[in-house]
Every structure is written in structure tokens, then in C-alpha cells.
Specification:
By secondary structure, this protein is of the alpha+beta class. The chain is built from two helices and ten strands, in the order βαββββαβββββ.
Length: 124
């Protein structure tokens, strides 16, 4: 398994609402789709959203993007309409400045999709 790609599967309440979020706010392009699911390519990875009654039940991070500049990425997401940034005070070894958390050299920010799935953007 060490030489194979991994695909992130994300359960969503409403496929139309979710696809609008992933396409218009995260600027992901549809790669493939079928009844009840849509596949996006992001870097060398795939992210598949699919309709499920179990969506939004994961209270931990679903997936993370590593970017060159966390602050500018957050600003781009905000300008695209992402407004669900999460603030976690009391993370061990981390400080927070607005929506950006920092642990050592790594900066992190989390946001939710319309189904409540949590995603992370991290980098420097």
C-alpha cells in the first residue's frame, strides 16, 4: 500500500448543496460522477463526495490540504464564501491568531462544509 494513491471519501447530506460548495467555494473541478456521488481531483489525490444519512457525524478532521501560504489560502477561501472557520483554543503546543493556529513552524486552519465535515489547511 505504500506506493498507491489514497482517495478521500466524504459523506454529505445534500449532493447538490455539497457540490456547489466544493466547486464554487473550494474551486475543485468535477473529474467523474455517478448516481449519488461526485469525484474531484485535487493535486494527485481524489476526493469523492457521496450522499449519506451518516454525513457530518465525524467530529474530527476529514482531510487536509498542505499549502505554501496558509494566510493567503484562508483569505482566498473567505473571498469565495467559506465562512465556517473553526477556532480551537487550548490545543496543546499551539497558539491562535484569528483563524490561524500555529504549532512550531506549522500553521493550520479548519473549516466545515455544509454537511459539517471538517477540513484542514496547513503549511507555513
Amino acid at each position: 500500500m505504500t506506493n498507491t494513491d489514497i482517495t478521500t471519501l466524504v459523506a454529505v447530506h445534500d449532493l447538490d448543496e455539497a457540490s456547489d460548495f466544493y466547486e464554487s467555494k473550494l474551486h475543485l473541478a468535477r473529474f467523474r460522477e455517478g448516481p449519488g456521488w461526485i469525484q474531484y481531483r485535487t493535486g494527485r489525490s481524489d476526493l469523492i463526495i457521496y450522499a449519506s444519512e451518516e454525513s457530518g457525524t465525524n467530529r474530527a478532521t476529514t482531510a487536509a490540504w498542505t499549502v505554501d501560504d496558509v494566510a493567503s489560502t484562508i483569505e482566498e477561501l473567505k473571498s469565495s464564501g467559506v465562512s465556517t472557520f473553526q477556532r480551537y483554543d487550548g490545543l496543546p503546543g499551539a497558539t491562535r491568531d484569528g483563524d490561524i493556529h500555529q504549532a512550531g513552524l506549522v500553521k493550520m486552519a479548519w473549516f466545515k462544509d455544509p454537511s459539517g465535515n471538517i477540513f484542514e489547511v496547513n503549511g507555513r
